[in-house]
Amino acid sequence: MVKICCIGAGYVGGPTMAVIALKCPEIEVAVVDISVSRIAAWNSDVLPIYEPGLDEADIVFVSVNTPTKTQGLGAGKAADLTYWESAARMIADVSKSNKIVVEKSTVPVKTAEAIEKILNHNSKGIDFQILSNPEFLAEGTAIQDLFNPDRVLIGGRETSEGQKAIEALRDVYAHWVPVERIICTNLWSAELSKLAANAFLAQRISSVNAMSALCEATGADVSQVSHAVGKDTRIGPKFLNASVGFGGSCFQKDILNLVYICECNGLPEVANYWKQVIKINDYQKTRFVNRIVSSMFNTVSGKKIAILGFAFKKDTGDTRETPAIDVCKGLLGDKALLSIYDPQVNEEQIQRDLAMKKFDWDHPVHLQPVSPTSIKQVNVVWDAYAATKDAHGVCVLTEWDEFKTLDYQRIYDNMRKPAFIFDGRNVVDEAKLREIGFIVYSIGKPLDQWLKDMPAVA
Ligand code: UGA
């Protein structure tokens, strides 16, 4: 019987192991994670030497977080491999039999080589084979993506032991994934493919968001442009929705990582190319804030602005790198009073996000700085109507379905006039809202006369 152990029960490790356990009844799956008391040990020189299930496992998945470094060499770009290194050292410590160690977390290219060194230098004669098996699931559709993946990617050493390890992992996935969808490559290709896939996806969004600015300037409609462009089968229709910007724990982090790797390899032109994807994303958020402020006579000081949606996309309560953070900070910088409603995100999380420094979110909660006293200009409410009451403007920052069917007449009646709505996700029915009396801004759509008269400078 094959035994699998996974270190890290986060967004990737948890669901992946659940699906393996479900699909492979003869495989025993154990998932371990750092508990509060164990954290102290992880961060000291004395690592926990035993995790239940680990010493007898044949395949060990490592699915721990790899935050962006905030200090030291590569700060703001490079991945911090502290948690990975700890995991590797622990595996070396407790292993009594040969192991296949699977990199599941997204890591910089050549991480496997470093991990291999740690394991082999501490191996006590045990054979370790490293595989890279990056995860492509998206939040909100994790189980669906795992059940029916476009592809499974397994990278390993090109030696006979390496090939055997690849086969062992392929056999696990072959329980439910058609073999033609299981791609086997060398280690570095697998590691790089993951960063490349996220960079390409983010690039599509930045491309369409760059177009959205041009659409507003010319009177074109970005939805129509996306539709027309996406009909080309070489381009395809997915991931072409203009937005206030992409968020989530991966896109920005992985691109920064890619940029760092390019720089380290003496490829500044390639690094700059990918940097632009992030710059356009930041530009889009700034542009949105500037549009709000300029439309309201160049000041939002003391004005109540309702924020509908805080999560980085719908159907999740996840707020990591959500564009809402930058938009809210931008408005707070102009002294607005914010009333925030998200069906899945609570006040504590929002206050923490608005107080936290960049990249801090990717460390375990108890290692994050204690949040300072909550920001007074921010009020979190549990209802869109409460958020919008007496507001001067409404911003839609997450595409929650419920925002499509709100009673906008009621919202309008309870708002200050002129009543503005800034739709960062293109979910509202602009024509209907204009009929009610709103001044409507939708990303990448032809502008109302009011907005044309009050140009925003990004
Ligand atoms: C992303 C990738 O889609 C997954 O394949 C990958 O495995 C994952 O990162 C990861 O590396 O862990 P995720 O971050 O869960 O998944 O979410 P996405 O659905 O990709 O959305 C990312 C952001 O782009 C969201 O803020 C979303 O609103 C935005 N987006 C997406 C747009 O603005 N426009 C679009 O057309 C699509």
UniProtKB/TrEMBL annotation:
It is an enzyme of class 1 (oxidoreductase). It catalyses: UDP-alpha-D-glucose + 2 NAD(+) + H2O = UDP-alpha-D-glucuronate + 2 NADH + 3 H(+). GO terms for cellular component: nucleus. Pathway: Nucleotide-sugar biosynthesis; UDP-alpha-D-glucuronate biosynthesis; UDP-alpha-D-glucuronate from UDP-alpha-D-glucose: step 1/1. It comes from the Eukaryota. It holds the Pfam family UDPG_MGDP_dh. Coiled coil: none annotated. One of its GO terms (molecular function) is NAD binding. One of its GO terms (biological process) is UDP-glucuronate biosynthetic process. The active site is at C250 (nucleophile). Keywords: NAD, Oxidoreductase. Its EC number is 1.1.1.22. Residues 306-430 form the UDP-glucose/GDP-mannose dehydrogenase C-terminal domain. NAD(+) binds at residues 8-13, 33, 38, 64-68, 105-106, 139, 250-253, 320. Belongs to the UDP-glucose/GDP-mannose dehydrogenase family. This is UDP-glucose 6-dehydrogenase.
